[in-house]
Amino acid sequence: MTQRFGDRTVLNAVSLEVAAGEYVAIVGESGIGKSTLLNVIAGLEPIHSGEIVFENQKMNALDDDALTVLRREKFGFVFQAFHILPNLTVEQNVGLPLLLRRIEDRERVRSLLVSVGLGGREASLPRELSGGELQRVAIARALVGEPKLVLADEPTGNLDPDNARTVLKLFQDETKKRGAAAILATHSEQAAAGCDRAYRLTAEGLRPLG
Q1: Which of 20, 41, 54, 138 has the highest CB neighbour number within 10 Å of its CB?
Q2: Structure-derived torsion over alpha carbons of residues 156, 157, 163, 165, reported in degrees to the nearest 10
Q3: Rounded distance, CA 86 to CA 125, Å?
Q4: Residue 153 forms beta bridges with which residues?
Q5: 110 with 122: CB under 8 angstroms?
Q6: DSSP letter at 210?
Q7: How many CB atoms lie within 10 A of CB 111?
Q8: Residue 49: is its pLDDT beyond 80?
Q9: From the centroid of its chain, how far is CA 154?
Q10: Is the pLDDT reported for residue 59 higher than 80?
């Protein structure tokens, strides 16, 4: 696939296939197009040429409503800036994807919070949590809908090195436990070291890292 903004080519003939249960890293410097690549994969941005195929569906052939449903039911997202709603409790934040699908499953939410080390913090508000804890909430929220694909955009960019290592290990363990495919976009080769496969994104496209 290729993505352009005006005369500028952001993604140049990028080709990537990720299987269920695989954990893949995309490494690149800031501004090279990592976030654009994740947005394209999620159907949040159109592509100039090529196609995105998910579970035998050509996503670029779907309309906006169909893409919204697909993302809500099949995708999970973890962001660098957490995007945790400040006026909702931890439990409410994690349960939000289920609420949007009109699913009530408090036990699933609470079980997942235990898995990410936040058991007993269900009633806490975001302002009562550390950065590492907030990113654990974000991981739980991304996984609560049992997605087939999880996209993580610099999920440890706002964390200190110790918390970053802990969160990355947690993210990998929890996605693999659930059999979800995961794509991690990061500037750090160290963050990519534990992945099944890692690629460097450059102006020429994707190249195996190492």
Answers
A1: 138
A2: 60
A3: 7
A4: 79, 185
A5: yes
A6: -
A7: 13
A8: yes
A9: 9
A10: yes
Alpha-helical (H) ranges within 48-197 are 64-74, 90-100, 106-115, 131-143, 161-177, 189-192
Q: Tokens 């991981």 sit at which residue?
A: 139
Strands 53-54, 149-153: pairing is unpaired
Contact 166, 136 (CB under 8 A): no
How does pLDDT run across 131-163, given as a tens digit for each residue?
Answer: 999 999 999 999 999 999 999 999 998 899 999
User: Any idea of the CA torsion for 24, 29, 31, 35, to the nearest 10 degrees?
Assistant: 10
Q: 27: which 2 tokens?
A: 């490494």
106-121 pLDDT per residue, tens: 999 999 999 999 999 9
- Determine how many CB atoms are found less than 10 A away from the CB of residue 123: 10
| Helical pair 106-115 and 131-143, crossing angle rounded to 10 deg | 130
First to last CA, the chain: 23
On whether the CB atoms of residues 85 and 96 are closer than 8 A, the answer is yes
Query: Going by C-beta distance under 8 Å and a sequence separation of 6 or more, which residues neighbour residue 41?
Result: 52, 149, 151, 183
Report the distance separating Cα 156 and Cα 138, nearest Å.
11
Q: What gap in Å lies between CA 160 and CA 86, rounded to an integer?
A: 22
